[in-house]
Amino acid sequence: MRKRQFSLGRTPVWVVLLAVTLAVAGCVGISAPVPMPAPQAGTPPPAEQAVQQPDATSAAAPPAAAIKDIPMGVDAEGNFYRGDPNAPVKLVEWSEFQCPYCARHVLQTDPLIIQTYIATGQVQHTFRHFPLDFHQNAMPAALATYCAGQQDPLYFWELHDWLFENQAAWSEATDGADQFKKQALALGVAEADYDKCIQDPASTARIEAELQEGMMLGVQGTPAFFVNEWFISGAVGFDEFKDKIEKAKAGQKPPPTPTPLPAGVEFWQPDPQRAGRDYGGGYYLGDATAPIIVLAFEDFKSADSAEHLKSSEPTLKTNYIDKGQLRYSVQLFPLTAPRAAAAALCAGQQNKFWEFREQLYTQQAEWTEGDDAAMQGFAKGLGLNEAAFSECLASDEVKNQVDRALSFAQSDVGVPSAPSYLIIKLDAQGVFENAKGYPGALPLDQFEQAIEEISAPPTPTPTPAPSISKADLSNMPMGRDAEGNFYRGDPNAAVKLVDYSDFQ
């Protein structure tokens, strides 16, 4: 019986990857990433997730007098800031005024950051606009704050606070720009200069330049923050900012992260910066230049995946992988066992991904999802550094990696179940040529058949016949030849086409 297929046709699978990154909570607005190298560390948010609630203390606002005593201004690049320009830690925020997660941050987390770090001279906070296309009032609000701030940076921050505090009232309004102007004037902004600034195309260009700058750094949604070199995505709690600020104060650097993909690079292609890894984060076996790629989307609690490891993988390795014909890449699809997936990634940090994966499958009946003790036991049995493994397993970073992998498989690739297999054929130049997807278990014989089928040269596409209008036909030479046969076309043509036909 032939397996049903999910197929990507000839559409590149690199869509919004890598848009392949994840926020705790944020507004997403970039339909495709800008694959530019990011000088800052971390991964920006492509999807909304359950909100991490800030600490209870984070909602306590500092006194208004304390805020007005904070230094404010415009930096050399034209960005509005508050806090000591000589502060050792720079907090750079990309945000937009209609994003509800941005409002959550400003109302719940910002006050404690101001009180603890900005007002005490430890942090300088710089704001950069990132208005999203699907928020109708985002650009008018950005322009309003920008133009108010041209008269006094204090006006920028006061209008900034008013917009977020009253977001629910104006978010869907059709007269948003009028409301923003009314509030700006109430703050003391001069109307004539404000109107001139709003109407100046250079003002819009300035906002768009900030948006483009964020995209070049990898920002894909709001809010997004850089704390020196540390990246924070989404509306997280104060504790996350405190952790990163204290690390930045101590001169600590974030761990190195993969370089964002160059233009045109697909997620299944090998990452030269990480041996045995592809750009999408998968672990692979085999020659990086193999013409056939198998992407195995796996859930470690899948009985079919465990059976595949036992019955099919050894033959695939012997007959295809070891001969340089096939590269086999495991893509995490943790539908039921995200904790086990996190443990495998932590083992991978110590170069033991494949061994840990084998333990999970061969001893599948001996562990349950969420059983960290079992995961620790596997790590110990493989000789891993247990302290480092535990630290990794408890980190938000590895949880986000797992969440990202699940979202990517479901949303970007469209994988329907675990296991599922996507088999990709590359041409002689290593360019995507064809792909076929197989949902569900795939026995060895069907696996081999699928490999052989996709390895076959593509069927040539016949050239479509040119269309000929009735006018073209009527203007064509026609007649009867010396033998009495009907013809059309030039009687002096070098080629004669004689058609024997029957109307039935």
Report on this structure.
The protein is 39% helix and 14% strand. A six-stranded mixed β-sheet has the order 2-3-5-4-7-8. The N terminus is likely disordered. The protein has two domains: 223 residues, Glutaredoxin; 173 residues, Glutaredoxin, CATH 3.40.30.10. With 504 residues, it is α+β, with helices and mostly antiparallel strands. A hairpin with a 5-residue loop joins strand 14 and strand 15. The chain contains 18 helices and 15 strands.
Total E-strand runs: 15
Helix content: 25-40%
Assembly context of the chains: single chain
- Count structural domains: 2
Would you state the CATH class of the largest domain? Alpha Beta
CATH superfamily of the largest domain: Glutaredoxin
Number of helices, counting only DSSP H or I runs of 4 residues or more:
18
What strand order characterises the main sheet? 2-3-5-4-7-8
Q: Which fold name is given in CATH as the topology of the largest domain?
A: Glutaredoxin
User: What's the overall geometry?
Assistant: flat
Structural class: alpha+beta
Indicate the CATH architecture of the largest domain: 3-Layer(aba) Sandwich
Portion of residues in beta strands equals 5-15%
Alpha-carbon distance between the termini? Answer: 39 Å
